[in-house]
Every structure is written in C-alpha cells, then in structure tokens.
Amino acid sequence: MEGLSNETLEAEITALWAQISAATYRFLKLLARYDREQGWAQHGLADCAQWLNWQCGVGPVAAREKLRVAHALEDLPVISDAFARGQLSYSKVRALTRVARPEIEDDLLNIARHGTAAHVERLVRHYRRCQRLEAAREAFAQHRERTVNYWFDDDGSLVLHARLAPEVGAVLKKALELAAEQVFAAANVSAETSADAAAGSIPDAPAESSAARRADALAALAEHYLAAAETDDEHRRRSNAERYQVIVHVETDAAEAQIEDGPPIAEETARRIACDASVRVMTHDAAGNPLDVGRRTRAISPAMRRALYKRDRGCRFPGCTHTRHTQGHHIRHWADGGETKLSNLVTLCGIHHRLIHEGGFEVRYTDDGLFVFSDPNGRRIPEAGRLEQCFSGNISAADSLAAAHTRAGVRIDSATIRSRWRGESLDYSQAIEAMMQNDR
After folding, report:
1. Is residue 195 part of a domain?
2. What number is the average pLDDT over the span 341-367?
3. Backbone phi, psi, residue 137, to 5°
4. 370 or 286: whose pLDDT is higher?
5. CA–CA separation, 139 vs 156, rounded Å?
6. Residue 148 is inside which H or E element, if any?
7. Which of 21, 46, 345, 424 is the 20 to 30 Å CA partner of 122?
8. pLDDT tens for residues 226-285?
9. What is the pLDDT of residue 326?
C-alpha cells in the first residue's frame, strides 16, 4: 500500500466497496431464504435475528434491520438488481426499503444513483412524513367507531376486537412497542409449537408475525398491571392477590386442566404457568368432586429470584440474549417433588420456557454446574453455537470477490458505486410529489 497515490487509493477503495455491496446483496438474499425456511428453528431459537447474533456476531438491532431489508428486497426487483451489481450501498438500500414499493422503485433508484446517502435518508424522512399527514385526514372518523369486544372462541382462545380513537390507539401502540422491546429484547416472537412436538419432532410453526409479537406484548402489559395493583398497600395487595389469583382445576385421570371461568388447557401448560406464578391447584375426581385445594404458592421467593438473576443474568437457552422479564423454571417440577433451590432452577425467557414444557425440548443440570439443553430428538444444543458442518467459503479477499462477481456477469470498477451527484440542489418537494402520484 505504501507509495500509492491518492487517486489510486480512491479507485481501490471505491471498487472494493462496490464489491462488498454486491456481496452484501448476496448475503441478504441467502439470509431471506434461510429465514423463510426457518433454518434457525433446529437450534430452538426464537427467530433468525437470534441466530445472526449467535452465529455471525451481528448485534440484535442490526440483525433485525438486516432481516427487514432482506425480506423487503424480495418484492423490489429494480432496487435489488442495482444492489446486486454494486451500484447501491447497503446504507442507501436500507433507507430506500423503508418506503419502496414497485410503483415508485424507478423514482427512488434515480434519486439514489444521483444523490448521496444523506440525500436518500432525507428524502425518505420527508416522504414518510407526507404519507402520515395524508393518512391523518381520515383519522378523525375513527373516533366515533371506537369499540372493544372480547369472547372465548370454540378452540378456547380469547378473541379481542378493538377499534380505538387515534390518540388512544397511539398510547396503546406505544405501550405495546415498549412491552415488546422489554419482553423480547432480541426481536423475540411467540413460540407456538405443533402438536407433534412432544412426540419427538422439532416444532414446525409458521414464521411469527408482528401480530404475534403484539399478542405477547399485550399479555405482558396485563401481567404488569396486575403486579402493580399488588404493591399499592398491604390491604389492597391482599385483596387484589385473591381477586386476580389464577385457579387451575385438574382432574386426577385427565391429560388437561382447566382455568376457572375459562377454557381447558394442556397439562404441560398448567405446569409451565405454575413454574413461576401465583396459582392455586384444585384437584377433582372423575365425577368433578373436589379432592384437594392446594395452597396458594409463589414458587420462587424474591430473595431466591435475586440470587437466580445474579447467577444467570438472563435466559440460559443457548443463543438467547433476553435479559429482562424472564421466568424461573424448575428443572424438576415442584409438582413432582422438585425443590425450589438454585440447583433446580434455571432462568428462561417466555419463548424457551414454552419450548421446554410444550415443545419437547429438555434441560438438565450436570454435576459440574452446566445446564445442558437438548431438542425433541434428544440432540444436545451446543452452548457456543458450534455447527457440525462448516463452510470454509471461497471468498477470502478483494480479488476473490471480484472473480466471483465476474463469473456471475457483474462488472464492477471504481466508478460503479460512486454517486452521480454534482453538487446541485435536490428538489425534495418535486421528487415527493412525483413519487406519491406514482404510488397512487
């Protein structure tokens, strides 16, 4: 590198950055496919963002953003083609995918090729603001139609239907977003498992949606509200504790339990709830006669919970990064005689707590102080994320990148990724007006 002129350095830097950008497109394309096929589920992880953090060293926030961009590109052929050819940087593409749709791809690409990354970011901000203002014109009519209804469906699920005034909806939305961020700090999603998981197969659930994340956040909001009601004062704490106590009815010969004033639930679901919650178990005979009313039990005391948190510092499932709003799990359930002591407790997030109870996964504590997790087929999940097969790759330097792209018909040089901006002023109003016209 010594002795090279600035012009030569510039040419090499820009050419290499174009190669990296084209390789980034290939990475995102593979990532979208891997996420779509749920390859991460074989490791018992909640989503692909956790896998990226675990296997590739990508931070949780950056991992979620890369996944968003990867899936957005699947519906944007024009931008994807320019990105694959090294004509756009990841920074530009990331901004474009926040607003891009096929109807305005050409407009966005033209601006991205003739502007800097700062121009693209500013355009996207202005465009999104115009979209919000246009949508706000219709918001007032929603106030007159506000409703909240709920009922138990035939399968026992509680169905909620709500239509709220915009300002109320905004408050609820913010609360759900905050709850989702706190409960699922690494883009957590709910882990609904298939019925055959307990029989030894890995759960094959569909990709979790934003709606599923909001459902988990809503449950967290309800739990936090009830928990806060218990701390007002001693009298209210006692009365509310009884008022909001969950009572589970269990028949001696049945494979399921039932929530009082609610639908039946699986026995393993009842055991998961009882792992770290305030419950009262009421046992019945086959005729429905009460046999025993168990004492109200909060399985893990505050002192034990502090010790558990100090030891585990978050969910112990391999690859999981959740540190807040976790739950204590009895390795040997207290209903089977397991003690509430540190050697029989492990911290899990809500997703992995569900996988252990209802998903067929297992955890055991070894004599040398390790928590060993295994999947429904009995295979141990490696703590450090080591895979049995590793791909050494054929891209080790800039020359290899260039050769790989040349074989793919992608021609890249020092001018490929450079902005065509010549210092002129960009008329954002005109650009946005054209984009919104095309979008309509």
Report:
1. yes
2. 88
3. -65, -25
4. 370
5. 34
6. strand 147-152
7. 21
8. 777 655 554 444 444 444 455 666 665 555 666 666 667 776 777 777 676 655 555 555
9. 87
Closest to 82 measured CA to CA, from 436, 412, 331: 412
At residue 383, the 3 state secondary structure works out as coil
Are 429 and 412 within one domain? yes
> Among candidates 343, 333, 407, which has minimal Cα distance to 370?
343
Q: How many domains does the chain have?
A: 2
Give the range of the structural domain holding residue 157, as residue numbers without chain letter: 144-235
3-state secondary structure string across 281-348: EEEECCCCCEEEECCCEECCCHHHHHHHHHHHCCCCCCCCCCCCCCEEEECCCHHHCCCCCHHHEEEE
Q: Based on the domain organization, do 82 and 182 belong to the same domain?
A: no
Neighbours of 384 (CB within 10 A): 7
pLDDT for the residue 358: 84
Residues 38 and 130 in one domain: yes
Question: 132 and 182 share a domain?
Answer: no
175 and 193 in a single domain? The answer is yes
The model's pLDDT over 382-403, given as tens digits with 9 standing for 90+, comes to: 776 544 444 444 444 445 667 7
Tokens of 397: 């330097």
Residue 250 resides in a domain: no
Q: How far apart are CA 156 and CA 183, in angstroms?
A: 25
Return d(Cα 212, Cα 375) in angstroms, integer: 23
| Separation of alpha carbons 220 and 238, rounded Å | 22
Q: Is residue 433 included in any domain, yes or no?
A: yes
> Which among 182, 213, 235 is the end of a domain?
235
Buried b (16+ CB within 10 A) or exposed e, 137-172: eeeeeeeeeeeeeeeeeeeeeeeeeeebebeebeee
